[in-house]
Amino acid sequence: MPDLPDLPLSSGDRxxxxxxxxxGAPLDGHDTARLVGLGxxxxxxxxxGRFLARxxxxxxxxxxxQAQAAITQAVACMxxxxxxxxxxxxYDQHRWYSGPVSELLQTRDEMNARIQQALRTxxxxxxxxxxxxxxxxDPEVQRTGMERVLDLRNRGVLVRSLYNVxxxxxxxxxxxxxxxxxxxxxxxxxxxxxxxxxxxDGVHLFIxxxxxxxxxxxxxxxxxxxxxxxxxxxxxQLWARGTRWQEGDASSxxxxxxQKAILRALEEGEAQHRVGPRLGLSERTVTKELxxxxxxxxxxxxxxxxxxWGRRQAEG
Length: 316
Prior knowledge:
Elements: H1 11-23, H2 33-37, E1 41-43, E2 51-53, H3 56-79, H4 81-85, E3 102-105, H5 108-120, E4 125-130, H6 139-154, E5 158-164, H7 171-182, E6 186-190, E7 197-200, E8 204-208, E9 219-222, H8 225-241, E10 243-244, H9 257-267, H10 272-279, H11 283-297, H12 302-315
Parallel strand pairs: 4-5, 5-6
Antiparallel strand pairs: 1-2, 3-9, 4-7, 6-10, 7-8, 8-9
């Protein structure tokens, strides 16, 4: 790359130039090399130690020409950056990284807007995990959600949603999810606690703001290749443990899905006081649900309830 002009001029440089222009003698002890290099002065061939002043306008044109040459070469170098980056596929894959990897979105509206932006270019999948308890939603919100599912399915995008098992006992949500399944989406429910997240095309990951626990409005948009791949693997493991919507649970129409989830946890050897944390329920709720289940099947104790449950499982 061409050398850039040796600028800026110091106050001593300017005073030296004025002295040379006046009588040809530089200031005592001042280095004249910069002024000579810039073409502002030149050694006097007839008088050693003295100098001749040159036209600053000509020197300015020389400086401009040097700067323009440097800029031209810099632009040419920048044009080659993409060619250099194009060598990335030849680099060891285990060393790949994503650059800027996450962005905090401060509000729920920002999160939703960013998710919608990513969905506009989605081409393969949208996986969501919604662990929260079901709530009565505005019919307009549900209609918009169904339109989004239909749009994605029409584009060949796999839509997969994982929900808290309690949604099966919530009429409005249950009806909405049944319609989504009818439209081609895949829905499953899970009895254990799991994180809320959205994965789009294995490239975009949206998660809660765990940096500040309790902040339910903010969230993170993560694009780090390794982190998104890890979340993708985690989702597949959760999905494998879930119950597909169409399958439901035929073990008994006498119990709610929440009660069945509690019985499954006990069946797997979970202590009763540990069932609540596993399912995201309070200990009081677990006790109440077990009492209701006992009454529903005519059992006097939890042991009798579990014996009844075991028989129904064997029959199923």
